[in-house]
């Protein structure tokens, strides 16, 4: 459903905000949007900015604004307002940013390789079997920590320190941490956090390689 409205709240650090339709007048009618859903060229989101957007409803999470753009914005690639590609069922979805597509390809290689290395290390007794079997639980823990932090952010509660999130990835929960960033759309728009996350991934692989080399 295409609408016009005004951005009434914008949190640049967390990368999300709320837009209120022109016909709406209550806070309850405000619609959530993420920085990835904003198409404004050199224009950044800001409170008071008039925009057009497509409102969608996802499960029980409430309405969400997609393909958000200033009223006067024209997509330079098409000369037309940006539109979302359609799914097979006719609904629309936003394409992932270029860096996300790269990360998806990297993860499609790293995760199976990681599981294969763990299985091989356990089989050859280079890694204790209980330890190898417990590693997937670290991803579950990392996902939970991200979910709890986003839940707290939405309600103004006490947040989980970023160092704790990175520590969960460093000890082996990096696959679950990345999945949480993608599915929960949490901590995925902050460049400094993403860089630190990939450092923890590299350090974990380095530590695993040193362990396996010393276990010969």
Question: How much strand?
Answer: 15-25%
Shape: elongated
Unreliable stretches (pLDDT < 50, length at least 5) are none
Mean pLDDT: 83
Strand order of the largest sheet: 3-2-1-4-5
Element-level helix/strand string: EEEEEHHHH
Please provide the count of β strands. Answer: 5
Determine the oligomeric state from the structure. Answer: single chain
Helix content, binned percent: 40-55%
Characterize the main sheet.
Answer: 5 strands, antiparallel
Our count of domains comes out at: 2
Distance from first to last alpha carbon:
61 Å
Rg from C-alpha positions? Answer: 21 Å
Structural class: alpha+beta
Q: Counting H and I runs of at least 4 residues, what is the number of helices?
A: 4
Write the layout of secondary structure elements.
Elements: E1 2-11, E2 16-21, E3 31-34, E4 50-57, E5 63-70, H1 98-123, H2 129-155, H3 162-183, H4 191-214
Antiparallel strand pairs: 1-2, 1-4, 2-3, 4-5
Helix pairs in contact: 2-3, 3-4
Short description:
The protein is α+β, with helices and mostly antiparallel strands and 216 residues long. It is built from four helices and five strands. A five-stranded antiparallel beta sheet has the order 3-2-1-4-5, with no helix packed on it.
């Amino acid at each position: 459903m295409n609408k016009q409205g005004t951005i009434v709240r914008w949190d640049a650090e967390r990368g999300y905000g709320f837009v209120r339709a022109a016909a709406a007048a209550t806070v309850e009618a405000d619609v959530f949007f993420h920085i990835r859903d904003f198409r404004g060229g050199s224009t950044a989101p800001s409170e008071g900015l008039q925009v057009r957007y497509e409102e969608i409803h996802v499960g029980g999470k409430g309405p969400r604004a997609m393909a958000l753009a200033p009223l006067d914005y024209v997509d330079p690639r098409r000369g037309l307002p940006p539109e979302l590609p359609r799914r097979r069922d006719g609904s629309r979805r936003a394409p992932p940013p270029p860096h996300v597509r790269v990360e998806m390809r990297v993860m499609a290689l790293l995760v199976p390789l990681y599981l294969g290395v763990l299985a091989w290390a356990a089989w050859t007794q280079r890694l204790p079997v209980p330890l190898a079997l417990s590693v997937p639980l670290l991803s579950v823990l990392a996902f939970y920590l991200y979910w709890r932090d986003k839940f707290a952010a939405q309600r103004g509660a006490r947040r989980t320190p970023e160092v704790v999130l990175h520590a969960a990835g460093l000890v082996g929960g990096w696959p679950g941490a990345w999945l949480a960033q993608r599915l929960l759309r949490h901590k995925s728009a902050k460049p400094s956090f993403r860089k630190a996350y990939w450092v923890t991934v590299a350090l974990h692989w380095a530590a695993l390689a040193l362990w396996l080399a010393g276990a010969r």
